[in-house]
Amino acid sequence: MSPDAYTQMARVQSTHWWFVARREILRSQISALNLPPKADILEVGSGTGANLGLLLEFGQVTGLEMNAEAIELAKSHSAEVRMRVNLLQGTCPKDLPSVHQTFDLICLFDVLEHIPDDEQTLAALRLLLKPGGKIMLTVPAHQWMFGPHDVTLHHQRRYSRSTLQSVCESSQLVVEKISFFNMLLFPLALAGRCFDILARRNESSGSGVPAAPVNRLFKAVFASERHLLRKMPLPAGLSLLLVASNGADVSNQ
Prior knowledge:
The protein is built from 13 helices and 7 strands. It is an alpha/beta fold. It has a single domain, classed as Vaccinia Virus protein VP39 (Rossmann fold, 3-Layer(aba) Sandwich), CATH 3.40.50. Strands 3-2-1-4-5-7-6 form a 7-stranded mixed beta sheet. The radius of gyration is 17 Å and the shape is globular.
């Protein structure tokens, strides 16, 4: 993304319905993992820090981000992030931490679709998990929806449920959960021109927050899916969420 896009993303990530509601969904999903106290957490592609404050609720956080300006924006956006998060500049998998079995949780939130070799990346991340550790990731769904907004955001691909599961299993990860989400707004995305809003064409490249009533409505609708996701996988949606482990039995370590 362009430097301006990072600046604009940092400006809206605290208030825009998509960022706010997704954090509520992620908080619910991470809580369900029952991580150990003060868990060691890595976020790959931490960007301008939209999720770092959330992750700090669950433990000690390291962020890996390729863009230096995004790192500085993350630090300036939050004193807590600046003081408590270990932010590293680098690409994945080339610049991953070298110590194996380091993390209880590794997160890639709308990141894997940017990486040319997704299988190699996940295989490298698997080695960084402690026994019983988890990878949680989100990606845009449906390759048939690939369009100009994906090109603008430098996406390599979108995923089907089967292709996402396949690449994880090829990386020797054990898939524990996979579900669509952003389901309730999915029909609107298919209805016409509002696709650009719901697929984050403008939001991801950093434009402004919608009018307050629209922002509140979309936030409420999207965030409500956290209750459904705790009970069952969703059959459709604009995005996919996956939780996987390294398959190690922590009780035998």
